[in-house]
Amino acid sequence: MDLPRKPTQAHVSAAVILLALVSLATVDGRKPCPNSNCEEFPAINCRKYSAVLTEFGAVGDGVTSNTHAFRQAIEHLKPLAAAGGAQLFVPAGKWLTGSFNLTSHFTLFLHKDAQILASQDESEWPLVAILPSYGRGRDAPGGRFSSLIYGTNLTDVVITGNNGTIDGQGSYWWDKFHKNELNVTRPYLIEIMYSDQIQISNLTLVNSPSWFVHPIYSSNVIIQGLTILAPIDSPNTDGIDPDSCTNTRIEDCFIVSGDDCIAVKSGWDQYGIRFGMPTEHLLIRRLTCISPDSAGIALG
Ligand SMILES: *[C@@H]1O[C@H](CO)[C@@H](O)[C@H](O)[C@H]1NC(C)=O
Ligand SMILES: *[C@@H]1O[C@H](CO)[C@@H](O)[C@H](O)[C@H]1NC(C)=O
Ligand SMILES: *[C@@H]1O[C@H](CO)[C@@H](O)[C@H](O)[C@H]1NC(C)=O
Ligand SMILES: *[C@@H]1O[C@H](CO)[C@@H](O)[C@H](O)[C@H]1NC(C)=O
Ligand SMILES: *[C@@H]1O[C@H](CO)[C@@H](O)[C@H](O)[C@H]1NC(C)=O
User: Fold this and answer.
1) CA-CA to 69 of 20 to 30 Å: which in 61, 86, 109, 212?
2) Which domains does the chain have, with CATH numbers?
3) Residue among 209, 147, 142 at smallest CA distance from 172
4) 196 a catalytic residue
């Protein structure tokens, strides 16, 4: 949220919230695994193919741009979607990259010591269309940058790892925001649109340029075991924003941020009303939230 409706509080409030908005028996729409030992992590264990980011020329030194490597890797794995799906493994290291797109029947898996670092070079961030339920960009009426990890019109996508890190290196964007220099809306860290069967789990996400996790116009979304960290004075760093989604489960997340920890949305004001796609069947449980000036869970 970035509307001027924030309560002011003198102290950091830590709230442990146990809330079931709508309790669902199951929101896991994934198909059953063929073998019985992969129940805990069906999608990952069931991918037929896998590849390692370094096979595509990536260098994990924190300096070399790996945008091309990520895009090439996923382009290469995309045709395997219909043949059993694929996993891209990101090994230990610091992998600097601009925005890249996911594909269907796909797992992005981060080693526990892998850090994906978002590029601060705007040429590595393509522009994408304005969201129809937002009518304009949130930072500026012009275009908007694609999120660091972006997916649209997908089925069965998993972004996970043994608590590996995705770092948005947001200070570049926060400075532009504070100096009023944004003519294009800032990127989010992860945005998935028009998709079904999404799982984002067991990761640490830090310093997003703006919102962290934004599933929109999607269904059967599981968000689990995320640690989300941003300075409490960073602008618009909402943790998780389920937006016009059906069947979403958010659990076991720890969020420290400069804005709402979770903001449940259905577009933006009159644009959202006109678009008319509500968020339905949402379960939020075991959320720990520290956000002194914003909400633990906001509606709208
Ligand atoms: C990702 O997909 C969107 C929508 O199809 C497209 O506009 C954008 O250019 C793609 N980004 C990359 C890096 O290919
Ligand atoms: C994605 O799905 C939406 C909604 O069904 C549709 O309007 C849009 O054209 C699709 N985009 C692509 C790139 O297939
Ligand atoms: C993941 O890493 C974060 C940041 O280091 C840490 O706070 C959190 O406890 C870790 N989570 C798990 C499940 O190990
Ligand atoms: C934003 O500003 C930059 C330079 O200030 C310019 O190159 C770019 O074309 C502008 N983008 C839009 C969408 O107006
Ligand atoms: C996440 O990690 C926990 C504990 O480390 C593990 O039990 C669980 O299966 C993992 N879940 C997912 C969905 O990755």
Assistant:
1) 212
2) 49-299 (2.160.20.10)
3) 209
4) no
Given the residues 167, 196, 241, 259, the one annotated as active site: 259
Angle at 137 (CA atoms; ends 237, 177), nearest 5 degrees: 50
Give the ligand at the shortest distance from the Cα of 139: 4
Residue 102, token pair as written in the block: 């996911």
Residue 299 to residues 5, 221, 245, Cα–Cα distance (Å): 12, 18, 13
Task: Find tokens 């990761």 and name the residue.
Answer: 203
Per residue in 184-196, pLDDT (tens digit) is: 999 999 999 999 9
Q: What is the pLDDT of residues 2-51, one digit of tens each?
A: 443 333 232 223 333 323 333 332 333 344 444 333 333 344 457 999 99
Residue that the structure tokens 């958010």 belong to: 250
In the block, residue with structure tokens 């091309």: 68
Helix, coil or strand: residue 176 = helix
Task: Report the SS3 class of residue 272.
Answer: helix
Alpha carbon distance 196, 84 (integer Å): 17
71: part of which helix (H) or strand (E)? helix 67-77
Band (pLDDT 50/70/90 cuts) for residue 141 is confident
Q: How far apart are CA 11 and CA 221, in angstroms?
A: 33
Best probe residue, ligand 4, of 123, 184, 185 (max atoms within 8 Å of C-beta): 184
95 Cα to the center of ligand 3, angstroms: 19
